[in-house]
């Protein structure tokens, strides 16, 4: 096993961690609503809990309004109830099998709460990156102990590992910074 193989393996794991982080930040409320806010809200339809993205198409009807065009009119009640129970504080308007969810502008207090939540999500993501880095470093050390990797390759691998994790952390930091600016409006 070469150090490049270990680095390539961690790159895919880091990419997944970054994609997960980006998806979580998309769910955070800002002045502009994102369809991701509703996608994973689970609605009770005929005794089964299904995410909203499986019940219909979710699109922006305006900066602070989401439109959910349900596949079937019978989903309306379950979808509205699910969004209300999710505590998103969205206003509801129903037109046949289309539901419009609108949000009031964020107050300063709400913005600060959302930014705190963003910081918490970012810190959890960074901890995940650190765990992945530590695991890859252990793999490099173990490969060296088993004589599958030379000592100098182990340190080349560590340098490349540090560079790779730093790149992903910086990308995640940039995502968080953009989201914070979006929240501040």
TrEMBL record:
One of its GO terms (molecular function) is ribosomal large subunit binding. It comes from the Bacteria. Residues 21-183 form the Ribosome recycling factor domain. One of its GO terms (biological process) is translation. Coiled coil: none annotated. The keyword Protein biosynthesis applies. Keywords: Protein biosynthesis. It holds the Pfam family RRF. Belongs to the RRF family. This is Ribosome recycling factor. It comes from bacterium (Candidatus Gribaldobacteria) CG10_big_fil_rev_8_21_14_0_10_41_12.
């Amino acid at each position: 096993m070469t150090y490049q193989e270990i680095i390539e393996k961690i790159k895919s794991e880091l990419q997944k961690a970054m994609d997960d982080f980006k998806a979580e930040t998309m769910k955070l409320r800002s002045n502009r609503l994102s369809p991701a806010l509703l996608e994973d809200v689970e609605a009770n339809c005929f005794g089964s809990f299904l995410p909203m993205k499986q019940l219909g198409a979710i699109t922006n009807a305006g900066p602070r309004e989401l439109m959910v065009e349900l596949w079937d009119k019978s989903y309306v009640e379950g979808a509205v109830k699910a969004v209300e129970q999710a505590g998103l504080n969205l206003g509801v308007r129903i037109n046949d099998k289309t539901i419009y969810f609108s949000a009031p502008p964020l107050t300063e207090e709400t913005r600060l709460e959302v930014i705190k939540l963003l910081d918490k999500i970012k810190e959890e993501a960074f901890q995940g990156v650190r765990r992945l880095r530590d695991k890859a470093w252990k793999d490099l050390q173990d490969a060296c102990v088993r004589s599958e990797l030379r000592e100098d390759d182990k340190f080349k691998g560590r340098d490349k590992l540090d560079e790779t994790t730093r790149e992903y952390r910086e990308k995640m930091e940039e995502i968080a910074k953009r989201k914070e600016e979006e929240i501040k409006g």
